[in-house]
Known about the structure:
mainly alpha, 6 helices
Amino acid sequence: MMGDSKNIEKYETYKKMKADLSKSMKAGFYYEAIFIEYAIMEDRCLSVLKHSGVKYVDNRGWELKLSAKLNKLKSHSAFSNPYIRKRITLELIGDIEIWKRDRDVLIHNLAKIPYDHEQVKQIAERGQLLTNLLDNKVRSVNRYCDKQTIIENDQRG
């Protein structure tokens, strides 16, 4: 029962983040949108690692950073499964990595470079597209992994 309330809370938080992202984009608050996009990407990568049974914490028990999660999505054998790889493609992971690099440069140079509205908007728009795509693919892969777990458990006993 406790897991259900935790899932409902997580769902509500995620739904609010998606709504906040939409509002930020419509209002032209692109930095805010980029922060939300990053958080959603972190969450979606964490979710697919969990559902796939792949370790998502380091040796100190800290959750992996986005770049480490993406590396696992690229290289861990759990993601070489054809069904999964067709959805979470190396191209998608590469696009997210490029977006993350662009985002990192933007964020780390926030006070150093003149504000370039078009560049910030473009990064936010790309992030929104990638976030939506990743979300759809992760939901599909999570359902697949959950079904595989049920099948394996049924076969065991």
